[in-house]
Structure formats: C-alpha cells, structure tokens
Task: inverse folding
C-alpha cells in the first residue's frame, strides 16, 4: 500500500472517521510495531490527561500514521452529529494489526467524501474534543466584560456580534466606532490561549502594551549545529491585558453586552434577524456577524466540495526547569532536530515531523510546546505530549514544577464560508486562519476596522434605516470585502502550501524551512502575515523555486502538476474558476 495515501485528503478523512468508529472498539495495538505507548512514567502529566490518554495502534506498514484509537466511546457520545463511514469504504483487517484498521482500508471509489458535518466535527475538535473543551474551559483570573460594558437592552440593533474572542470583540468595537448600534453576545469567558506574535505586527495595531514579554530575536534549528536567527522580535501576549484592552475599546465605542451563548439565528424578514440565546433571551438586529470560533457550522454555511480541513495541534507546558539549553535571550521559534535519532536509529521518513517551540520566561521558567504544523487527521495530543517528554528527557531538561498545560487545536484550510449568505462571519469562524501557519490573531485584529467600515457602508447603501434596508444585500456586500477575489487567490496559494506541507516528509519539511527563511525578508514576513498580494505570491513561488534544493524543487513541481490544489491554484489565478463558488471540485487525479 502506498504510504503516501495517508496524506491523501480523501483517504485521511476516512482515517478520521475510521478512528472515530474504531473508538467504539476495545483497545488493540499492533503486534508488529511493538507495544502500546501510554507514557505512564510521565512526570508532568496530570491525571486528567492520563485518564484521557489514548493508546496507540501503530502499523509497521505505515509507521507513525496510525493515530490512537480511543478506548471507549467518548467522542461518539459527546458530539452532536451522527457519523457514518461513507459508502464504498470498508475498514479491513490490517495484515499486521490485530484490529480493524481503517487506515488500511481500500477506497473502492475515489471521490471527495467530506461532508459539511464531517468538517464541522473536525473543526470542533474531532477525536481530541475532550481536550479541546478542557482548554476552552480553563480558568484564568480576568476582569469580566460585563463589568465594563453596558448591558444590552431590548432595542433593535444594527449589528450583533456573536462570540467574545479576540476577533469578535475587536470587530464589535470597530463597528461601533463606525457609528453602528452594536451588541456583543457570548459567554463572559477569559482568554486562555497563549498567543505569540511578531512584535512589529502588534505594534502596528497599537497593541504593544498588551505584550508581556519580548525577545529581540527568534531562533530556528534545522540541523544539529548553530541556530538560524530569523532576525525578528517575538512577543508573548498577555491574555489578561489583551482582553482588557479590547473590552476598553468596546466600552469606549458604546458596544452593549449580553453574557449568553447563542442557540440559533432566525431570519425574520428582509431586514431583521433575531438572535436566540440559550437563556431564551432574543436580540433583534439588522445584521449578525458570527465570530464564535472555528466550529461555527451551526450558524454559517460553508462551501461544499472544497479542500478538506487539516489541523495544527500542539501540546504545551509552562514549567520550572533546572537547565534550559538554549540561549534565553531568544525565543525558540522552531527546533526541528530529531532528538530521538541518537538512541533509536533512523526515524521513518514517513513519520510526520514535529518541532519544539519555547518561550524562556525567566532563568528557570519556560513555556515549551511540541507542535505538529499540520496533519490530516490531527496528530493527537497524547503523541505530542509523549514526544515532548522524550525530547526534554533526551536534552537533559528536568521539569520540577508544571504551572500550566495547553492543548492547542487549530483547524487549518477547509472550506470558505458561502459569501452569499445573510449571516456574516469573522475570525476563525470565517476561515481567516492562515492555512499554512495556523495564525489568525493579527489578521483578525488588523482587518477588523476595514471590515467594520464595509459593514457600515453596506448597511447604508442598502437602505439606511430599519424597515428600508436589506440584510441579504448588505451581507453580500460585506462578505465580498472580507473574501474578495484577491483574498481568494491568496488563499488558493496558501492552501497549495498547506497541502505541500501535508505531503512533505521530515527531510522535505526541513528543506522547506531553510529555504523559506533564506528568502528576501519582505517575502517570508509577508507570507507569514498574509500580507503578500496574489502577484507577490508568484514572486514568492519563483524565489522559492530558485533557491530551493533540487529535491524540494522536484516536490514543488510534482505537487503543482499532480495535486488538485495545484490545479485549483492555477485555475484561480487565471480566473477559470471563481475561488468562491467552487464550480471545480477538488478531486484526486
Ligand atoms: C491554544 C491556542 C493557541 C493559539 N495561539 C495562537 C497564536 O499564538 N497566534 C495566532 O495567531 N493564533 C493562535 N491560535 C489560533 C487562533 O488565533 C485562535 O484560536 C483565536 O482565538 C481565534 O480567535 P476568534 O476570536 O476567531 O475565535 P475564538 O478565540 O475561538 O473565540 C470564539 C468565542 O466565541 C464564543 N462562542 C462559541 N460558541 C458560541 C455561541 N454559541 N454563542 C456565543 N458565543 C460563542 C467562545 O466562547 C469564544 O469566546 C491559537 C489557538 C489555540 C487554541
């Protein structure tokens, strides 16, 4: 069986579903590939993680590609959608594993099998749902939004923003600055994610005061020797200060607030929508923008037939250590060196590489994170935790105390929202996460003023006041600003990059990053920050091709010719398809 099949979007989706179905099976592991891995000797993993640890079924035929099959049926029980393995695909007994191995199943028909439900399931957390929810519900002492903002009354608003994440709060503030009557609706929960940013980008947003720690440069290790210095300062965002600043901006602009989850959004008549909260409270508004995070499928429609969603997963710990082997003056952006090869011989080239990211906070306190840049299906947290633990042990880093754990699950790629629908979207809900990097914070914060202005313009141009306006027309106008043809071309390029990353093995990914940071600064910075125009991105591609080693050049050309994302990229650029309508389906060639 072709090991690369595991990377195939269609195949991999099956793998996810297979794993979900297999979750109902008792735990089994691969006799050929050795024992299960449960890392019971873990010195820093609390019980909550150990108890949810999945056991691994790995397969000699495709080492490293079998994600754990969960014991028990927790995922099936906790998700709201029902799942079935698509017709034409049958899980079969792997030749090497004593289990029904969906990874070894043979598709009887190759076609795009991803449905909206599947994509939603993956975006919500898929097999990692319990830890994704645990991350979202972490406690963190932060002032309540309700203490700063006036409560929502019963008036009909111009705009309701659903969701109090960074994207929603920033958009609400900017829309109110445009003179709109804005309501913010969402649970009053703290910001719990550890956000890292390039400090120049945050300064440009007037948010440098929200950075709690800055490193003057960032380092990257690809091979054994000295680091590659990226030449760019990096900062750690204070979750508390960012939330306070966004609350302050909302309060100053006159945003009103309701602390409640939204249950559904009703289209009442041409220019009126009703947001129905789980508490039963309703809020009327001319337009609604959903900013409730990546899993927004219950409120927004997404295109069908698009590329499958991938996931960036990272397991992080903030710890006290006795010895930190890197230079503490620099932030460790990526260490792709493989700490295991010394003891275990060659790592299979098929294994998906992960890297270490570290923020040295003091001489003894460090935030470490083992990251899988992108995988489909998601690399499980238990595997990342195990790799991190092994890495730290091999490096002689002894952890004496764990302050915090982080489970970072970021869906990347996937479908665009339908840009003719009446409900608007923003942030991760509107597919604004960079498909190739997983970053979205700076993009959302920097686009908020422009999008807010577009919403205000659209409401005005489609009939200034309630009773005369048209929500549908206004929404289409605003969507076309957020996802303009130019933005869609850029996204086609990034999706091509994501699919390439999903295809690259350890050597390929190292070649890619060495090449990437050797590009002219404006190119790699612009790529990371979603700032390159579609024309700039052609320069990016040409420059990458010129300086890349031959093996990577070959991969690039092959990927462009063979992979559907290559065809899609070319078609989008030459205008044969509107990237928004997906008249051309991504199908395996
Ligand atoms: C651990 C972690 C670390 C990350 N680090 C970075 C980083 O360093 N840099 C970066 O750029 N990106 C990072 N990301 C990715 C991304 O930027 C973040 O996920 C970011 O928080 C997305 O912002 P958002 O406002 O779009 O959505 P979210 O932050 O997910 O906010 C959505 C909000 O909507 C609310 N909500 C959900 N459902 C409802 C409902 N039914 N009704 C009302 N409200 C609802 C939620 O409670 C939440 O407050 C990280 C993600 C994670 C998980």
Result:
């Amino acid at each position: 069986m072709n090991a690369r099949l595991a990377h195939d979007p269609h195949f991999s989706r099956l793998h996810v579903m297979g794993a979900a179905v297999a979750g109902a099976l008792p735990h089994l592991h691969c006799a050929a590939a050795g024992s299960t891995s449960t890392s019971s000797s873990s010195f820093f993993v609390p019980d909550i993680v150990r108890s949810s640890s999945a056991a691994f079924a790995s397969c000699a035929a495709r080492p490293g590609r079998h994600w754990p099959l969960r014991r028990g049926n927790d995922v099936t029980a906790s998700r709201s959608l029902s799942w079935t393995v698509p017709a034409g695909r049958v899980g079969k007994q792997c030749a090497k594993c004593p289990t029904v191995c969906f990874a070894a199943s043979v598709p009887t028909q190759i076609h795009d099998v991803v449905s909206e439900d599947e994509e939603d399931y993956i975006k919500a957390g898929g097999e990692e749902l319990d830890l994704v929810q645990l991350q979202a519900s972490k406690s963190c002492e932060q002032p309540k939004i309700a203490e700063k903002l006036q409560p929502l009354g019963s008036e009909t608003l111009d705009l309701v923003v659903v969701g109090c994440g960074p994207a929603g709060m920033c958009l609400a503030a900017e829309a109110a600055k445009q003179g709109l009557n804005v309501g913010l609706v969402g649970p009053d929960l703290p910001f719990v994610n550890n956000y890292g940013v390039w400090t120049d980008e945050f300064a440009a947003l007037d948010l440098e005061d929200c950075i709690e720690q800055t490193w003057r440069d960032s380092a990257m290790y690809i091979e054994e020797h000295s680091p590659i210095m990226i030449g760019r300062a990096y900062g750690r965002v204070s979750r508390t200060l960012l939330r306070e600043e966004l609350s302050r901006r909302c309060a100053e602009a006159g945003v009103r607030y309701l602390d409640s989850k939204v249950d559904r959004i009703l289209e009442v008549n041409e220019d009126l929508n009703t947001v129905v909260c789980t508490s039963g409270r309703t809020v009327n508004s001319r337009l609604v923008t959903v900013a409730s995070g990546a899993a927004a499928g219950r409120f927004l429609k997404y295109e069908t037939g698009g590329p499958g969603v991938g996931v960036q997963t990272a397991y992080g710990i903030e710890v006290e250590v006795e010895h930190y082997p890197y230079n503490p003056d620099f932030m460790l952006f990526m260490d792709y060196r493989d700490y295991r090869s010394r003891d275990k011989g060659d790592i299979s080239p098929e294994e998906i590489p992960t890297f270490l990211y570290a923020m040295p906070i003091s001489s003894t306190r460090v935030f470490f994170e083992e990251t899988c840049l992108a995988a489909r299906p998601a690399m499980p947290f238990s595997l990342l935790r195990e790799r991190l633990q092994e890495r730290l042990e091999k490096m002689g880093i002894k952890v004496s105390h764990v302050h915090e754990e982080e489970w970072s699950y970021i869906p990347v790629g996937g479908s665009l929202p339908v840009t003719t629908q009446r409900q608007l979207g923003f942030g991760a809900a509107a597919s604004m996460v960079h498909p190739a990097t997983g970053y979205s914070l700076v993009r959302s914060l920097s686009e908020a003023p422009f999008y807010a202005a577009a919403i205000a313009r659209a409401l005005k141009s489609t009939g200034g006041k309630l009773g005369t306006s048209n929500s549908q027309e206004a929404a289409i106008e605003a969507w076309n600003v957020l996802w303009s043809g130019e933005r869609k071309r850029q996204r086609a390029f990034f999706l091509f990059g994501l699919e390439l990353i999903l295809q690259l093995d350890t050597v390929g990914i190292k070649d890619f990053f060495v090449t990437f940071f050797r590009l002219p600064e404006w190119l790699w910075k612009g790529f990371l920050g979603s700032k390159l125009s579609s024309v700039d991105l052609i320069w990016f591609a040409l420059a990458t091709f010129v300086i890349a080693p031959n093996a990577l050049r070959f991969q690039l050309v092959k990927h462009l010719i063979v992979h559907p994302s290559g065809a899609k990229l070319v078609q989008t650029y030459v205008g044969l398809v509107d990237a928004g309508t997906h008249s051309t389906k991504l199908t395996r060639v």
In short: Residues 305 and 585 are 5 Å apart (CA to CA). The first helix runs from residue 9 to 22. The chain has 18 helices and 20 strands.
